[in-house]
Amino acid sequence: MTALATATNAPARSLWRFAEGETQLNHGSFGGVPVAILNAQQALKDEMEGDPVRWFCTLPDRVARARVEIASILGVPSDRLAMVPNASAGMSVVYSSMAGRERINVMTTNHGYGAVVMGAERLARRTGGHSAIVAIPLGASDEDIVGRVDDALSSNPTDLLVIDQITSGSARLLPTGKICDVAHDHGAVIAIDGAHAPGVLSEPVEEKADFWVGNLHKFWCAPRGAAVLVRNNPDLEVMPLIDSWGARDPFPARFDYQGTLDSTAWLVSPTAWNYLDETVAGPASTITPRNWPPMPSRSSPMPSPGTASAHRCLMWGIQSGLCGCSRSPAGQGAGPGITTVWMLCACRSSTPRGLHWPSPSSRARGICAFPRTPTPPPPTSSTWPITGSPSWPTSSESSE
After folding, report:
1. Residue 26 lies in a domain
2. Residue 397 lies inside a defined structural domain of this protein
3. 346-373 pLDDT per residue, tens
């Protein structure tokens, strides 16, 4: 295997502070900040501590400039994009702004990110509404996914549909554009959780969504605490979770000043993107804002094939007896095209049988992890699914 290198042929690892002997594969959870960006952020922190009064008096203008640059990189109008601490916080802004309505019925999927799903369900409870979950098999086609969402919306009157763009738990790229069309046909507001999209997809923002959120600390490599909320529907009012001196400003300026919040992660987010342009992808002058080669253009097609491979492997686990459930599997996404196959089957058993729990959220949902006891012999080259044996069920066969 050839080690990755920068545009100047230096080891790519040298750009980060990863521990010696550790290989970072799961950038999709907490990201990783290059040393140069950490230093740039520290310089801003030093400036803040050197003159706090001047810093906070000039902060809104600084945030506004960074916000405009981030919007340009993402390819969206700057008057649609607000800065938030993370994608979950952005979704909480949406939920909070809808909480004043009566009876909000929400719909999510079985691939939804736990914190986002819990927030949607709480919104339904607070308003006296109900929550519904669309079951999407890991191996479902785009057409099947859209059809399942359409059927669910037809059966369950829904005010807010919350859909992942790249699912956190299974690294599946969902057909968000078509899902948005279906949701609007049913009169539902749709919010897209695009936490994993920036830096992965060449055009990450789903323009048909009423709301879209995305993290910048993952594949964008900005410091943690940097994310964006895009409001494409100007008829839907949203307010920051913190009422501060910008509360009377229009959207998105009202989000620029959040009291004494440390906003340095927001301020260096454009620097992080430009740094990767210059250091990893070549001179920034050769990069267009909506098509950053080679990373997003190469990684955009990867999630679906990666998830398909995980589906085949997990179905092998079910067929061979590694896992005792008969339901369609779901895996845990470690990044675009990288799905940790060992993670989960889709059995929502009340008694966990697994020997390894990958996350607290999966334990809370009662999802079993294989192997079960007794553990069968490890697969041989003649049975391992990558070789094409055994045969795999179709999506319809594995949908239960």
Report:
1. no
2. no
3. 343 333 333 233 333 333 333 333 333 3
